[in-house]
Specification:
Distance between the termini: 76 Å
Shape: flat
Strand content: 15-25%
Structural class: alpha+beta
CATH architecture of one domain: 2-Layer Sandwich
CATH class of one domain: Alpha Beta
Oligomer: single chain
CATH superfamily of one domain: Histidine kinase-like ATPase, C-terminal domain
Number of helices: 16
Number of strands: 18
């Protein structure tokens, strides 16, 4: 049995083409029922997500639009309250002269009538009741009346007893509602009566239709007391059900799911109203079921076609791989003592084995070339480090000669000692890295000699934060930068020369700032220099006779990695600032 099993597997172990064909056919022939169930569930989730997203947005928009509609109606009341004839009537309704009071009342009635017909598209009527004069004004499409009621009339009776300033209340079962607001005296806020706008709920249908209600869905408006004020479509909701739904609302707009329904809601806070849409779960399930039926038919056809396509694609896809594997058999012969980590026997295994040998040979070649170049660059760098700028050396020797005739022996000795320390620092310690303290001592010797040359023209300031002295830095990193400041920035500048060196800890590492007040760098030259430093494309050895900024930056990157290096900023006529970043975890022990 084992032998038979091996014979059956052998064609697939030795050919990726056979593996690919069998794999693709197997993937395309997944049991139809599994695909159908998965498609049905995904479709149901997709429909559910679409319904939730669509209705969540629509309910928010609808609540906003309804709020604007109610605000428009409320503005009609404010139009009445600020009307000049209303204020005049209030002022003269107790006038002793009946003629004066009658004229004021007539003007007020005309104003109310005018406002009604200006908004007849919204209003079915305007009711006004003034408690001090016990007068009721009624304006609608059929008549205009002013009379004295025997008691506080509907709908103001209950409204004026409450503390609220406005309310929206249904008008029995007429399909209309009252939007009522109290009339208050401006000076002491005393209630003088109320205004009620009679409005048909059907005027809001266009706004509610934004929710696209259907026969299976319910859209309604309710107040915060759990009373349904208006229902557009669907099954009615009982008072207990409505209160239960409102108790689950915890935001200005949103949705939640009950056992049988999806409930979307939006609030109109200024009017204490809720807009609610209820969609039964069966609506989503029915939509998904129709899609599932189509998916079964399409899936059956697709399965048959995918078998044929799988064979064709597998054959065409594997053809170049097989051809390449056969062509690589004559490339890179194996060494007798090498065994590549390959366990496959097919064309991919052959590619892996050949690639393993090729990469190993290439690595050996690169390693040899790298070692030769590294040794060459190290020798060149050590030769460069052993040099001192001949102009600086000549000027220093001339300085020593002139001081021999004019200065005291101890002053002459300090200059000779500084020059001697500079030479000793350059030629000793073959290791590339040194401590930051030793490098700064070398810079101070250089600055001391320059101060003796230029006397009072040079001002230097060096700040060294405690704890950075033992940090590692490549030798001859800072002194060439200071020397560049003299050569390119200060020697041609009139007035006082200033050089500031600051060393401190930062989150990124050791930060070194070298500033001068020299001539600065022209913008075009500065941009070219900044590009070379930021692109890090400058070779380690630039072939210059001196250690330039590019070499300094390349050496820092070579020792510490790409996050560290050098940057430069300059303003023409104001000076130059060079910033260096070094790691703080690297340190060198002072001998």
């Amino acid at each position: 049995m084992t032998r038979i099993f091996r014979l059956l597997l052998d064609p697939f172990q030795r050919s990726i083409r056979n593996k690919l064909i069998v794999t693709m056919i197997g993937l395309s022939c997944v049991p139809l029922i599994f695909i159908s169930l998965l498609a049905a569930e995904n479709t149901r989730r997709s429909v559910e997500a679409e319904v939730i997203e669509s209705n969540s947005s629509k309910i928010k928009w609808t609540a906003g639009y309804l709020g604007e509609r109610f605000e428009q109606m409320n503005n009609i009341i404010y139009t009445l309250l600020i009307n000049e004839s209303y204020n005049e009537y209030i002022a003269k309704m107790g006038d002793a002269n009946p003629s004066t009071a009658f004229n004021a009342q007539k003007d007020f009635v005309n104003a109310v009538t005018s406002i009604f017909y200006s908004n007849v598209n919204y209003l079915s009527g305007i009711h006004i009741y003034l408690s001090d004069s016990n007068k009721q004004f009624l304006v609608n499409g059929s008549n205009m009346e002013v009379f004295t009621p025997p008691r506080i009339p509907d709908p103001f009776r209950n409204f004026l007893k409450n503390q609220g300033n406005f309310i929206i209340e249904n008008k029995d079962n007429t399909g209309s509602f009252y939007l009522m607001r109290t009339i208050n005296r401006f000076e002491d806020r005393k209630r003088l009566g109320g205004i009620a706008l009679e409005i048909n709920w059907s005027n809001l249908d266009n706004t509610l239709n934004l929710l696209t209600p259907g026969s299976e869905q319910t859209v309604f408006i309710s107040n915060q007391q759990g009373e349904m004020l208006y229902s557009l479509e669907g099954q009615p909701v009982s008072s207990d059900q409505l209160i239960n739904l409102q108790n689950q609302m915890n935001a200005e707009s949103g949705y939640f799911r009950t056992k049988e329904d999806y409930v979307f809601y939006g609030t109109i806070p200024l009017w204490n109203l809720n807009v609610i849409k209820v969609i039964p779960s069966s609506f989503i399930d029915n939509s998904a079921r129709r899609t599932w039926q189509y998916a079964v038919i399409i899936g059956a056809i697709s399965t048959l076609l995918s078998v044929l396509v799988a064979i064709m694609i597998a054959w065409k896809t594997s053809k170049p791989i097989v051809k390449l594997a056969r062509s690589m058999q004559g490339i890179v012969p194996l060494k007798e003592d090498e065994t590549p980590p390959v366990t496959r026997k097919d064309e991919i295994g052959l590619l892996e084995m050949r690639y393993y040998n090729m990469s190993k040979r290439l690595k050996e070649y690169i390693k040899a070339e790298y070692s030769i170049n590294l040794e060459k660059r190290t020798a060149q760098l050590k030769a460069l480090q052993a040099q001192v700028n001949p102009h600086f050396l000549q000027n220093t020797l001339q300085l020593i000669g002139s001081m021999a005739f004019s200065k005291k022996p101890d002053e002459l000795y300090d200059v000779i000692r500084s020059l001697s320390d500079m030479f000793r620092y350059i030629i000793r310690d073959p290791e590339e890295l040194t401590t930051l303290k030793q490098e700064l001592d070398h810079v101070q010797n250089y600055l001391y000699i320059q101060k003796q040359r230029f006397t009072s023209r040079i001002t230097t300031h060096m700040f060294l934060e405690p704890g950075v002295e033992s940090s590692a830095i490549p030798k001859l990193t800072l002194q060439p930068i200071v020397e560049n400041a003299f050569i390119h920035g200060l020697e041609k500048k009139t007035g006082v020369w200033e050089i500031h060196i600051t060393v401190k800890h930062t989150v990124q590492g050791i930060f070194i700032l070298i500033e001068d007040n020299g001539l600065g760098i022209p913008a075009e030259h500065l941009s070219q220099l900044q590009y070379r430093l930021e692109a890090q494309t400058e070779p380690f050895w630039s072939g210059s006779e001196r250690i330039g900024l590019s070499n300094v930056a390349a050496r820092i990157r070579m020792h510490f990695g790409s996050p560290y290096g050098l940057s430069i900023d300059s303003q023409l006529g104001k000076g130059t600032a060079i910033r260096l970043l070094l790691p703080r975890e690297r340190s060198v022990t002072n001998d």
